[in-house]
UniProtKB/TrEMBL annotation, chain A:
<feature type="transmembrane region" description="Helical">
    <location>
        <begin position="65"/>
        <end position="89"/>
    </location>
</feature>
<protein>
    <submittedName>
        <fullName>Simple sugar transport system permease protein</fullName>
    </submittedName>
</protein>
<feature type="transmembrane region" description="Helical">
    <location>
        <begin position="39"/>
        <end position="59"/>
    </location>
</feature>
<keyword id="KW-1003">Cell membrane</keyword>
<dbReference type="InterPro" id="IPR001851">
    <property type="entry name" value="ABC_transp_permease"/>
</dbReference>
<feature type="transmembrane region" description="Helical">
    <location>
        <begin position="96"/>
        <end position="116"/>
    </location>
</feature>
<keyword id="KW-0813">Transport</keyword>
TrEMBL record, chain B:
<dbReference type="GO" id="GO:0005524">
    <property type="term" value="F:ATP binding"/>
</dbReference>
<dbReference type="InterPro" id="IPR050107">
    <property type="entry name" value="ABC_carbohydrate_import_ATPase"/>
</dbReference>
<dbReference type="Pfam" id="PF00005">
    <property type="entry name" value="ABC_tran"/>
</dbReference>
<keyword id="KW-0762">Sugar transport</keyword>
<dbReference type="InterPro" id="IPR003593">
    <property type="entry name" value="AAA+_ATPase"/>
</dbReference>
<feature type="domain" description="ABC transporter">
    <location>
        <begin position="257"/>
        <end position="500"/>
    </location>
</feature>
<keyword id="KW-0547">Nucleotide-binding</keyword>
From TrEMBL, chain C:
<keyword id="KW-0472">Membrane</keyword>
<dbReference type="InterPro" id="IPR001851">
    <property type="entry name" value="ABC_transp_permease"/>
</dbReference>
<feature type="transmembrane region" description="Helical">
    <location>
        <begin position="112"/>
        <end position="132"/>
    </location>
</feature>
<keyword id="KW-1003">Cell membrane</keyword>
<feature type="transmembrane region" description="Helical">
    <location>
        <begin position="324"/>
        <end position="342"/>
    </location>
</feature>
<keyword id="KW-0762">Sugar transport</keyword>
<dbReference type="GO" id="GO:0005886">
    <property type="term" value="C:plasma membrane"/>
</dbReference>
Length: 314, 503, 351
C-alpha cells in the first residue's frame, strides 16, 4: 500500500495525471456546454479525431504549432455547426446524428490523412509543444514541476475551468444556455433565440473538442495515429454525467479518470509482466461505467436534453 | 374612450386544414381589462400566441397605438410592450427566481446584472404588491407564486399590455381574489390587460369589456359584462343554449371500487394522505379540486402505476395486491387518461395498435405469442364505425386524428370490454361541444348499465351536470363529499380551499 | 415561400425512395473527395461497382461481407425499435467471436460444433448487451454511453486474450488458435468464400421481421419504443421488454461474430471486425429499422467496402472513402427521413 502511496506523490506521476486530464478536461467542458444547451453531442469522438488530424496536418505543413491549434479549433467549430444543423435546426435525433457525425468525421480524418501523407511505414511526426515552466511557481516543491512545468495547452485547460464556470453562471449568455437547456419555451418567450443559443453552445463545445483533439496529436503524441483518440470522447460524455453538468465537477471528474488512467499505466510498467497490458487498458473504462452506475441515480440532466425545439408545435 | 393600445385586425391562422382563427378583430385600450371568452378550442390561445409572436398569422395585421407592427417573435412582442402569462408557465424550475427574471436581459459589462435586477424587482413589488424571494429556485415556489413570477417577469420587461391565459385554472378561489386585485391595480395605473377564460362568473367580476370567440371567429362582444347574464354570454360562446345531458335517477348497487386509507409518499406531485372513497355500480363520482392537490397521484394509484405506502384498494370486491396496470385491468378497470398523447395513445403507430394496446395479451388479439392481425383490424374497424371516429382507417397514424376523435377512440377501446369501473380525467378538455356531449352521453349510458365511474375534473359546471356525488380534494386529502343535489359552485369552491364539507 | 407541414401518412414507395435518395446524395457528395484525390469520379465509382457487384465472384465476396452487417443491422434495428440505444453491437460481435472461437476449438462432430458455436456466440453477445440494458433499467445509466464504453472494454479484453493466453507461441502473432477444421462452416459454392453463415443471415432477416410485426413481443417492443408511458399504462412491463430486446439484439450481434469466426477467419484476431458493429447502425437507419430492408442496406455497404479496396488499388483514392460514405449515408438518410414527417408545401408570399 505504501509503495502505491509513494508512487502517487512522485512528481512524474502527478505530472502524468495533469497531462492525461488536459484533453479530457477540454472535451468534457465542450460536451458540457453542448448538453447544458440541450444538445447531446455524440459526434465528440469523431470531432476530436478529425481535429487531431487537421491540427497535426496544418502544423506539419506550415511548421507553426499555433496555426495547427487554430485549424483544429476551427475544425471542431465546423463539425459542431454540422451537428447543430442536424439536431437544432432540423430537429433530428441527437443520438443518431451524433453517431453519424462521428462516423463521418473519423472517415474523413482517415481519408484525408492517407491522401496527404500516403502510406508510410513510420508515421510522420512533428516537433510538438514543449513544456513551458512558469517562473517562480514551477519551483514549488512537488506541485511546481507537476503542474507548472507543462505545455501551454495544459495551462489553457486549467484556465478554461474557471472561465467556463464564469461564462455559464455569471454572464447573460450563460444564463441563456442554461435556460434553453431547461425550458426552451421560457427562453423563447423571453425573447432569447433558442436555435441561435443552441448553435452557439454546440459550436463552442466543438471548439473545445477541437482543442482536446489537437492536444493529443500535437502535445501528447506528436503524431497522428488512427487510435489517437481511442474512446476518450465517449469517456468525456460519461464524465459530464459524472460531473453533473457543472464545470468544476466535470473537471474534477476528468482529473479522477486521469488518476485511474495514470495508475493503470504505472501498473503496466511495474513489471506485472505476465498480464498483457491491454488488461490494464480496460480499467479506466470499467471504472467509468461503474462510476456512472453509482452517480446516475442522483444526476439530473438538463430537462430539455435530447428534445428539439419547434415553436409552432401544438 | 382612449385610443386603443393594441388592435388586431382580420387575424386568420390555419394549422393544416384547420382554421384556428378566422378574421378576428380585437382591441384593448390603456387601463382596460378585456375578457377573451370562448370554449376550449375556440381559438383564444392561438390568437394570443399570434399577438405574442409565437405563431405567424396567415392574414391580418396588428397595430400598436395606431401604428402597424410586425411581431415575428416573442422578442418583437416584448419590445412592443406585450407580456404574456401562459397557461403552462414558462419557467425553469431549477433556476432561481432572479435568474428566471433576468433571462434575455442584457447584462452589465458582460455579466448578469444582479444588482439592477434586484432593485427592479423590489420596485415592482412596491408598486403592485407582488413580492418574491429572488434567490429561491422556482421549484420551491407554490403555483400561485410561480404565476406571480410570470406577471412580474412581464412587468420587469416594461409590458404595457399583459395577456393572461386561463390564469385562474391553477388557483384556489382565495388566490383568485388576490390575483384580481393585483390586476385591477395594474389597470388603474394604465396597463391594458387581456384576460382569457371560459369561466363566466370570473369574466363578469373582473373585465370591462368582452370579446367572445367561437370556432375561431368572433361570435360577439359584450360591452358591460357585469350587467350581462351568464346565460346570454354562454349562448354567445356555444351558439345555442346549453342543454345539460339528461341524467335520470339511478339506483346505485354495490361498491365496485373502494379505497381505504390510501397514502403515498412524496413524489413529483402532491402525495395522497389517508384517502378513502367508494364508487358504487351505476354511479358517477366526481373528484373536484384545484389542480395539483393529489388528483394525479389518485389516478395513478387507481390505474395501477403507483404503489401506495398504506391502505387498501378493491375492484369489484377483489383486493388489489400488485398494483400493476395489468392487474387492475384484469379486475375490470377501464381508464381514460387526461393526457391522451402521453399515457393513452402511441401517436406514431397505427390507430389500431393503440386501440388494442391494453388487451394485446388476451385471447381476443393474440394466441401463443402470435398476433391476430385480422382480429385487431376488425376490432378497430368495428369501433371506428360504432363511435363514428373520423379517420381514413385503422392503419392511420393515431397522431393524425383530432382531439375529439382520439378521445372517442380511447373511449371505444375501454368500453368495448364492459369495464366494471371507469376512471376518467378531464374527459372533455380541449374538445368541441359536440364531442363533449357525445362523451357525456356515453358516460351516462355506462352508468345505466351499472358501471361505476369516477371523473376527475376541474370544471365544476361539468361535474355538477354529470355526477351523482362530488368529492373534493385538497392537499392530498378528501375534504368532503356532497350529493350533487346539495352541491353548488360556491360550496364546492369553499371546500376546494380546504374548508371541511359535510359528507 | 416554402414551409414544412406535418404529414398524416407516408406513401409506401417512400420506403424505397428515401434510402435511394440518401444513397444518391451520398455518392454525389463523396465524389468531391474522389476528385480531390485526383481520380475520375465515374472511373472510381465504376471500379467500385464492377469489383463488388460486377461478376458472380465479386457478388459472393460482397455477400460474405454483407452477412455480419445483416446481423448487426438487425441487432440495431430491433434495439432502436424499442429505443434501447444499443451502440454496442461492435463489442457484442467481438464477444460472440471469442465465445464461438473458444467452442470451435473443442474437438467434436462438425454440425454439433457449429450449433454450439452459434449458441455460445449468441449467448455471449446477449450477455454483453444485457449490461447497458440492466444499467439503464436499474441505475438509470444512459445506455448510449455505457454501450459505447463497453465496446472499448470488450476490445481490450479480446486484445488481452490474444496477447496473453491465446497468443501463438510459435509465431508470436497476436492471434487465437484456429478452430477445428470440422467446425469450419461449409462453403456453398466451390471456389468462393460463400459460407453457410451467409444463408443463415439472409434467413434471419425475415424471421426478425416476423417477430417484430406478428408477435406480441414485437408489438410490445414497438409500443415501448414509441411511447413507454402509454405502454406502461397499457399493462406492458417496460423494463422486461427492454431487457428482452437487449438479449435479442445482443444475440444477433453475437451471431455476426460467429459467422466471421466459423465462415471467414476460423480464428480471432484484433481486426476481425472493421467496425461492422457501427456499420450496423448505418444499415439499420438506411433500412428505416425494417428487418427486411436490412438485407439490401447491408449489401450496399458491403459493396461499398469491397469496391473501395479495388478502387484504391486501381485509382489510388484511399479506401477510407468507404468510411466517409458510411457516415455521409447515415446523415443523408436522417435528413431524408424528414420527408416522412413533413411535406414541403409552397405557400403564397407572406404579406
Amino acid at each position: 500500500m505504501s509503495a502505491v502511496f509513494e508512487q502517487i506523490f512522485q512528481v512524474g506521476f502527478l505530472a502524468a495525471i495533469i497531462r492525461i486530464a488536459t484533453p479530457l478536461a477540454f472535451a468534457t467542458l465542450g460536451e458540457m456546454f453542448s448538453e447544458r444547451a440541450g444538445v447531446l453531442n455524440l459526434g465528440i469522438e469523431g470531432i476530436m479525431l478529425l481535429s487531431a488530424m487537421t491540427g497535426f496536418t496544418a502544423t506539419s505543413l506550415s511548421g507553426s504549432l499555433w496555426l495547427g491549434i487554430l485549424v483544429a479549433v476551427l475544425t471542431g467549430m465546423l463539425m459542431g455547426a454540422l451537428h447543430a444543423l442536424f439536431t437544432v435546426a432540423l430537429g433530428l435525433s441527437q443520438h443518431v446524428c451524433g453517431i453519424g457525425v462521428t462516423l463521418f468525421s473519423s472517415g474523413l480524418a482517415y481519408f484525408l490523412y492517407r491522401l496527404i501523407f500516403g502510406q508510410q511505414s513510420v508515421p510522420p511526426s512533428i516537433k510538438g509543444f514543449e513544456t513551458l515552466p512558469i517562473p517562480v511557481l514551477s519551483s514549488i516543491p512537488v506541485l511546481g514541476p507537476a503542474v507548472f512545468n507543462q505545455f501551454a495547452l495544459v495551462y489553457m485547460a486549467i484556465l478554461a475551468i474557471p472561465l467556463a464556470a464564469f461564462v455559464l453562471y455569471r454572464t447573460p449568455w450563460g444564463l441563456s444556455v442554461r435556460m434553453v437547456g431547461e425550458n426552451p419555451r421560457a427562453a423563447d418567450s423571453a425573447g432569447v433565440s433558442v436555435i441561435g443559443t443552441r448553435f452557439q453552445a454546440v459550436i463552442l463545445g466543438g471548439a473545445l473538442m477541437g482543442l482536446a483533439g489537437a492536444f493529443l496529436s500535437m502535445a501528447q503524441f506528436n503524431a497522428f495515429t488512427f487510435g489517437v483518440v481511442s474512446g476518450r470522447g465517449w469517456v468525456a460524455i460519461a464524465l459530464v454525467v459524472f460531473g453533473r453538468w457543472d464545470p468544476w465537477r466535470s473537471a474534477g471528474a476528468a482529473l479522477l479518470f486521469a488518476f485511474v488512467d495514470a495508475l493503470q499505466l504505472r501498473m503496466q510498467a511495474s513489471g506485472l509482466g505476465h498480464i498483457p497490458y491491454e488488461a490494464f487498458l480496460m480499467l479506466p473504462f470499467i471504472f467509468t461505467i461503474v462510476a456512472m452506475a453509482v452517480m446516475s441515480r442522483n444526476a439530473v440532466a438538463p430537462s430539455a436534453l435530447l428534445k428539439p425545439f419547434r415553436r409552432e408545435e401544438r | 374612450m382612449p385610443a386603443p393600445l393594441i388592435e388586431m385586425r382580420g387575424i386568420t391562422k390555419r394549422f393544416g386544414a384547420v382554421k384556428a382563427n378566422e378574421a378576428v378583430d380585437l382591441s384593448v385600450a390603456p387601463g382596460e381589462i378585456l375578457g377573451l371568452l370562448g370554449e376550449n378550442g375556440a381559438g383564444k390561445t392561438t390568437l394570443m400566441n399570434v399577438l405574442f409572436g409565437a405563431y405567424a398569422p396567415d392574414a391580418g395585421e396588428i397595430l400598436i397605438q395606431g401604428q402597424p407592427v410586425r411581431i415575428a417573435s416573442s422578442a418583437d412582442a416584448l419590445a412592443a410592450g406585450i407580456g404574456m402569462v401562459h397557461q403552462h408557465f414558462h419557467l425553469a424550475p431549477r433556476l432561481t427566481v432572479l435568474e428566471n427574471l433576468l433571462i434575455g436581459i442584457p447584462g452589465r459589462s458582460g455579466r448578469i446584472d444582479r444588482a439592477g435586477g434586484l432593485a427592479r424587482l423590489a420596485e415592482i413589488g412596491r408598486q403592485h404588491g407582488l413580492t418574491l424571494d429572488p434567490n429561491l429556485p422556482v421549484s420551491a415556489l407554490s403555483v400561485g407564486e410561480q404565476q406571480r413570477l410570470e406577471i412580474v417577469k412581464a412587468l420587469f420587461r416594461g409590458a404595457r399590455l399583459l395577456i393572461l391565459d386561463e390564469p385562474t385554472a391553477v388557483l384556489a378561489p382565495t388566490e383568485v381574489d388576490g390575483l384580481f386585485s393585483a390586476l385591477r391595480s395594474m389597470a388603474a395605473q394604465g396597463l391594458g390587460i387581456i384576460f382569457i377564460s371560459h369561466k363566466l362568473n370570473e369574466v363578469r367580476a373582473l373585465t370591462h369589456r368582452c370579446t367572445v370567440l367561437r370556432h375561431g371567429r368572433v361570435a360577439g362582444r359584450v360591452d358591460d359584462p357585469a350587467n350581462t347574464t351568464s346565460a346570454a354570454m354562454a349562448q354567445l360562446m356555444c351558439g345555442h343554449e346549453i342543454v345539460p345531458p339528461a341524467r335520470g335517477p339511478s339506483t346505485p348497487g354495490a361498491a365496485v371500487l373502494t379505497l381505504d386509507g390510501i397514502s403515498t409518499s412524496q413524489h413529483s406531485g402532491t402525495a395522497l394522505r389517508d384517502v378513502s372513497l367508494a364508487v358504487r355500480a351505476g354511479e358517477i363520482l366526481g373528484i373536484a379540486g384545484v389542480s395539483g392537490n393529489g388528483q394525479r397521484a389518485l389516478a395513478e394509484v387507481i390505474s395501477g402505476v403507483r404503489l401506495p405506502d398504506a391502505g387498501q384498494m378493491t375492484i369489484a370486491g377483489q383486493k388489489v395486491s400488485g398494483y400493476s396496470p395489468r392487474e387492475v385491468q384484469a379486475l375490470g378497470l377501464g381508464r381514460i387518461p387526461e393526457d391522451r398523447m402521453t399515457t393513452g395513445l402511441v401517436t406514431n403507430l397505427p390507430l389500431a395498435d393503440s386501440m388494442v394496446l391494453p388487451r394485446i395479451g388476451t385471447a381476443a388479439f393474440s394466441s401463443r405469442g402470435l398476433l391476430k392481425p385480422d382480429a385487431i383490424r376488425a376490432f378497430a374497424e368495428a369501433q371506428i364505425k360504432a363511435y363514428d371516429i373520423r379517420c381514413p382507417g385503422p392503419m392511420t397514424r393515431a397522431g393524425a386524428l383530432s382531439g375529439g376523435n382520439l378521445q372517442k377512440a380511447l373511449l371505444a377501446r375501454e368500453l368495448a370490454f364492459d369495464p366494471k369501473v371507469l376512471i376518467v380525467s378531464q374527459p372533455t378538455r380541449g374538445l368541441d361541444i359536440g364531442a363533449a356531449r357525445f362523451i357525456h352521453e356515453k358516460f351516462l349510458d355506462m352508468r345505466g348499465k351499472g358501471c361505476g365511474i369516477i371523473v376527475i375534473g376541474e370544471d365544476l359546471e361539468e361535474l355538477l351536470v354529470l355526477c351523482d356525488r362530488i368529492a373534493v380534494m385538497y392537499e392530498g386529502r378528501i375534504v368532503g363529499t356532497l350529493d350533487s343535489a346539495d352541491a353548488t359552485v360556491a360550496r364546492l369552491g369553499l371546500m376546494m380551499t380546504g374548508a371541511e364539507g359535510h359528507s | 415561400m416554402f414551409r414544412l407541414e406535418v404529414r398524416t401518412s407516408t406513401p409506401a414507395w417512400f420506403n424505397l425512395a428515401l434510402p435511394l435518395l440518401a444513397i444518391a446524395a451520398t455518392l454525389v457528395l463523396c465524389s468531391g473527395l474522389i476528385a480531390l484525390a485526383g481520380a475520375g469520379v465515374i472511373d472510381a465509382y465504376g471500379v467500385m461497382f464492377t469489383a463488388s457487384l460486377g461478376d458472380s465472384y465479386a457478388i459472393t465476396e460482397t455477400m460474405v461481407r454483407a452477412a455480419p452487417m445483416i446481423f448487426t443491422g438487425l441487432a440495431v434495428a430491433v434495439a432502436f425499435r424499442a429505443k434501447f440505444w444499443n451502440i454496442g453491437a461492435e463489442g457484442q460481435l467481438l464477444a460472440g467471436a471469442v465465445a464461438s472461437c473458444f467452442v470451435g476449438a473443442i474437438p467434436m462432430p462438425g454440425p454439433l460444433a457449429m450449433l454450439l458455436m452459434a449458441v455460445a456466440g449468441a449467448a455471449a453477445g446477449a450477455a454483453v448487451a444485457l449490461v447497458p440494458a440492466t444499467l439503464r433499467v436499474k441505475f438509470r445509466v444512459d445506455d448510449v454511453v455505457s454501450s459505447l464504453l463497453l465496446n472499448s472494454v470488450i476490445y481490450y479484453a479480446l486484445m488481452a486474450l490474444i496477447e496473453g493466453p491465446w497468443k501463438d507461441s510459435f509465431s508470436g502473432y497476436p492471434i487465437s488458435p484456429p478452430i477445428e477444421d470440422s467446425a469450419n462452416f461449409p462453403v456453398l459454392l466451390e471456389g468462393t468464400r460463400l459460407h453457410l453463415g451467409v444463408v443463415v443471415a439472409l434467413l434471419a432477416a425475415p424471421l426478425i421481421w416476423f417477430l417484430i410485426v406478428r408477435t406480441t413481443l414485437g408489438f410490445r417492443i414497438r409500443v415501448t419504443g414509441e411511447n413507454p408511458e402509454a405502454a406502461r399504462y397499457g399493462g406492458i412491463n417496460v423494463e422486461r421488454v427492454l431487457l428482452s430486446t437487449a438479449l435479442l439484439s445482443g444475440a444477433l450481434a453475437g451471431l455476426a461474430g460467429v459467422g466471421e469466426v466459423g465462415g471467414v477467419h476460423f480464428q480471432v484476431m484484433s481486426d476481425i471486425s472493421p467496425g461492422y458493429g457501427y456499420s450496423g447502425i448505418v444499415v439499420a437507419m438506411l433500412a428505416r429499422l425494417n428487418p427486411l430492408g436490412v438485407v439490401p442496406a447491408a449489401i450496399f455497404l458491403a459493396a461499398v467496402m469491397t469496391g473501395a479496396e479495388a478502387m484504391s488499388r486501381a485509382t489510388g483514392v484511399p479506401a477510407f472513402l468507404s468510411d466517409v460514405i458510411q457516415g455521409t449515408a447515415l446523415l443523408a438518410m436522417l435528413v431524408a427521413l424528414l420527408f416522412t414527417a413533413y411535406r414541403i408545401r409552397r405557400v403564397g408570399a407572406a404579406r
